[in-house]
Design a protein that fits this description.
Blueprint: E1 4-12, H1 20-42, H2 47-59, E2 80-86, E3 92-98, H3 104-114, E4 119-121, H4 122-131, H5 145-156, H6 174-178, E5 188-193, E6 199-205, E7 226-228, E8 232-238, H7 240-245, H8 248-259, H9 263-273, E9 279-285, E10 290-291, E11 298-305, E12 310-313
Helix pairs in contact: 1-2, 2-3, 8-9
Length: 320
Amino acid sequence: MGWAIALHGGAGDIPLSLPSDRRLPREAGLRHCLDVGIAALKAHKHPLDVVELVVRELENHPHFNAGKGSVLTTSGTVEMEACIMDGKTKKCGAVSGLSTVVNAISLARTVMEKTPHIYLAFDGAEAFAREQGLETVDPSYFVTPENIERLKQAQEANRVQIDYTQPIQKEVKKDDAIGDGDSQIGTVGCVAVDNEGNLASATSTGGLVNKMVGRIGDTPIIGAGTYANHLCAVSATGKGELIIRGTVARDVAAVMEFKGVSLKEAAAYVVGQVPPGNVGLVAVSSTGEVTMPFNTTGMFRACATEDGYSEIAIWDSPSK
């Protein structure tokens, strides 16, 4: 038993030929965020503080699909969402439809701690953020050139596209270019457990490229993209609609509890129930286990445990 942390920067059809200018900044971002989380756990911060801190760092990184770097809706706007949950108390907070809040995850925590509710969205969530003094900016802050290009590609192909879909080659017929890459999405998330078995989970995203205005995915839905209880903490990434249908995050905890199996077995079982190419997750247990399974081509991920183990990876690896 000891502390453990895991985080992800999204799962999807991440090509093995991913150019270094797209791969290296994300790997560096994962390494930095993992170090931030480890330092916080070593300083005996509560896991709820740790996961919020790490997800804020991921949101502020323009190469991940959350906060600055969020993908664009069909109207070229940003609509961010986030969720945070405490395992021991099952207290949680969630937000959707944000266009000016710098750190959606901190607004989710404020909803959890400062309101009688769990979930606020769109204008009401934006107004609450301003009322609480959270940092807000002009929506243009979140829009990156890379995401303007992604939206253009998706609209040319007349599709809803995921963050890590490979660029469409002009000479390739559009139908041939879509492939299974459409089935995933980039999201960021973090789960942590401390030496006393306290657990927390946090997830944040910009959603799908070219999504309909007003679309809500799995990230802010308790039990779908985000969940924590006394047994484990889970943050999922992938095709939101399928993660919602599969109640992925809650199912990991349920399989652990009702089947009496380990975190690794439970998570592998749940990921296996989702059609291939659609989901990944990171999870930790109250006893310090960590697992990061996915059925997509890859998942930007990192983890560390108190006994000195650490991993930063994108594609399949023997130590996964």
